Amino acid sequence: MNQVLTNVPLSLPVTGNLLALADNKHSIIKLFDRNGRLEASLGNPDFKPISGIPHYPFRFGGIGIVALTEDGDLIVQNRIASKATETTEETDSVFKSYSGSFSTKGSTILPSFLVQISQKGVVKYLLGASGKNSEPFRYIEAVIPGEGDKLFVYHRIAEEMRLTYFDEGELKGNIRESLLPVFTSPEAKDFDITLDKMLPHPEGEYVLASFSYFSKKDKRFKYRKIFRYTFGGKDDIFVKEIQDPSEILFSIRNNNEFYIWETEDQGNSVRLQVHDQEGNHINNRRLPFAPPRGQWRETYTDSDDTIYSVRIRSGALEVYRWI
């Protein structure tokens, strides 16, 4: 069999000198320093700690997304399974699937809460879709810590994507896909418009949203547009039009510049186009991936605008920082 690491996340959150690795199988989060030394672990109370390494017990359900605030607190998606949401399949169902059938998706959507917890296992609050101690999230795609105690959650409610903004666990506002004016614009008559993603500025002042436009006549991709929105605002501000489908919105920097990801050299390298707040292309950063390209899993940024990539090589998980 191929030696593939499966019990690891796509990305590993980093802040300061701290890196967090979720062990989903055992419901444990391990904290490492930048030299790869294990500093502490949090999670399953029955976990036998390593001698000399602090372990702080907390009974997680199923660990989903893990993020780190700029102060080093963990934001953990804690999936809660209940009798009402669990499903039981026939024991021989695996033998009824045709050869090659494989799925990484669960049969049900498990509700989850976000737990903000210190590195020593002190719970600060439990966050639901409407704020502290409210109803659970149904599906979360991204958890994005902002400056201070700001937190942004990109999630779905009733088949609609939302970007919800919290500060100190209190709901500050959200941007709902169904209310975005782009879907009622004159272009909507000729194009099928789909939302690619929404990214918040760390201070919560605005959001950049990317949309793909497909012709209703031939179903082909025509272009991509980026708009700026504010929480609570009704209008959008046009920022950028992109003709190449391989160019996608990647991240927003603290200084209001944003990156467009452009794949180059048959996927062996990436050019990050640097744009100013008005959408002007002002610079580039190139990320050359050492072959083979298939070893590289995910590229992402932290709160200090540092870029990281995760690589799996020879059965080991490696984190690279681009300089």
Number of DSSP helices? 0
The SS-based structural class is mainly beta
- Quaternary organization: single chain
Name of the CATH architecture of the domain at 1-83 and 109-177:
6 Propeller
Biggest beta sheet attributes? 5 strands, mixed
Radius of gyration: 21 Å
Average pLDDT metric: 87
- CATH level-4 homologous superfamily of the domain at 1-83 and 109-177: TolB, C-terminal domain
- Total beta-strand segments: 25
CATH names the topology of the domain at 1-83 and 109-177 as Neuraminidase
Spatial order of the strands in the main sheet? 1-2-3-4-5
CATH class group of the domain at 1-83 and 109-177: Mainly Beta
- Given as residue ranges, the uncertain stretches (5+ residues, pLDDT < 50) are 1-5, 82-107
The percent range for helix content is under 10%
Q: Whole-Å distance between the termini?
A: 36 Å
β-strand percent reads: over 45%
**SSE pattern:** EEEEEEEEEEEEEEEEEEEEEEEEE
How would you describe the overall organization of this protein?
The chain has 323 residues and is an all-beta fold. It has a domain at 1-83 and 109-177: Neuraminidase, CATH 2.120.10. The chain contains no helices and 25 strands. The protein has strands spanning 14-15, 18-23, 28-33, 38-43, 55-57, 62-68, 74-79, 112-117, 123-128, 131-132, 139-145, 150-157, 160-167, 170-176, 191-200, 207-215, 221-229, 237-242, 247-252, 258-264, 269-275, 281-288, 296-301, 307-313, 316-322. The strands form 6 sheets. The protein has a 5-stranded mixed sheet, with no helix packed on it. The chain has a 5-stranded antiparallel sheet with strand order 6-7-8-9-10, with no helix packed on it. A hairpin with a 4-residue loop joins strand 11 (139-145) and strand 12 (150-157). Keywords: Lipoprotein. This is Putative lipoprotein.
